[in-house]
What we know:
Blueprint: H1 2-23, H2 25-32, H3 38-90
Helix pairs in contact: 1-3
Amino acid sequence: MTALNIIAAILCAFAGLGALAMAMARHARDVFGRTPERRTAWSLRIFGMVMLCAAYAFSVYAWGPKVGPVGWFGVLSAAALAVVTILAVKTPAGR
């Protein structure tokens, strides 16, 4: 059960950080070729924050209230590395 909570935390953190990145005009333009509309950007920001809160909840549930926040930072680090790697691959070489 703990392994599933850790995997859920990693997936939620990845989705949250990816949504926050896509809410930024530069990254959305690099990936999709256009900037998101204002309403879409706000929706992505809210979704990203909700997913990061869910990742925190899964981390605390998996590791307990003392170690959970530390595990959450590790989960965020792993998810951020994945998002940055994907954005680096999707970005054109000229930028």
